[in-house]
Amino acid sequence: MNLIRHGTRTRSCLRRSTRRGPVLGGTLIHPAACIEGPNSRVQLQDLIRINIDSARGFESAAETIERDDPASLFRQIGTHRAAHAAELRGIVNLTDEEAEDSGRIKGTVHRWWLTARGAVQGGDDHAVLAEAERGEDAIKERYESAISEVPESDVKLVLERQYTEVKQGHDKVRDLRDAVAS
Predict the structure, then answer these.
(1) b/e sequence 12-41, b meaning 16+ C-beta within 10 Å
(2) Whether 40 contacts 97, CB under 8 Å
(3) Which pLDDT score, from 0 to 100, does residue 60 have?
(4) Which pLDDT value is given to residue 21?
(5) How far is CA 72 from the centre of its chain?
(6) Structural domain boundaries enclosing 137
(7) Which candidate, 41, 70, 81, 85, has a CA 20 to 30 Å from the CA of 58?
(8) Are 61 and 74 in contact (CB under 8 A)?
């Protein structure tokens, strides 16, 4: 846990609080100790954008795909990604920096391609699942990069927890894609 000095007191990156705010395990995140260096902030902003893109992409995919099982999974994963983005925005907003609140153009293009591919192929579930897994590969890579570059801190613990959830979502999409193919 990172420690910072405030006058003669030392306090940890996380402090107990009953106030509302971005929390990790019931504790309020203290941003000055958690988000060290400009690269960490860049990584967090990038993860916010890709989580927003992912949430929107899964929303689109749920509407495109014909089967109920994948649609339900897509909605569930999309909800998790929206929660990840909100959690990361809360952390960034505690600093003097404004958190991202929209996705990337590349994400918009990917959603358009997913919709177009599903329509052209008659709502082919395998095609939609394959495209969704491709998006999952991208978000996994972003988390891996961020985790390797963000210094040891409680924010890194948040990223590692979110990464575990991202990998679980990826694996479910991959397994469903493989099941539909056979």
Answers:
(1) ebbeeeeeeebebeebbbbbebbbbeeebb
(2) no
(3) 83
(4) 47
(5) 19
(6) 37-181
(7) 41
(8) yes
For residue 133, the model assigns a pLDDT of: 87
Strand order from edge to edge, sheet including 14-16: 14-16, 27-29, 23-24
CA-wise closest residue to 21 among 98, 79, 92, 100: 92
pLDDT at 10: 27
Is residue 127 one of the residues assigned to a domain? yes
pLDDT profile of the chain (182 residues), mean per 10: 31 37 50 60 90 88 85 95 94 76 56 48 73 88 92 90 97 93 82
Domain count, the chain: 1
Sign of CA dihedral 36, 37, 41, 42: negative
Rounded CA-CA distance 90/111 in Å is: 26
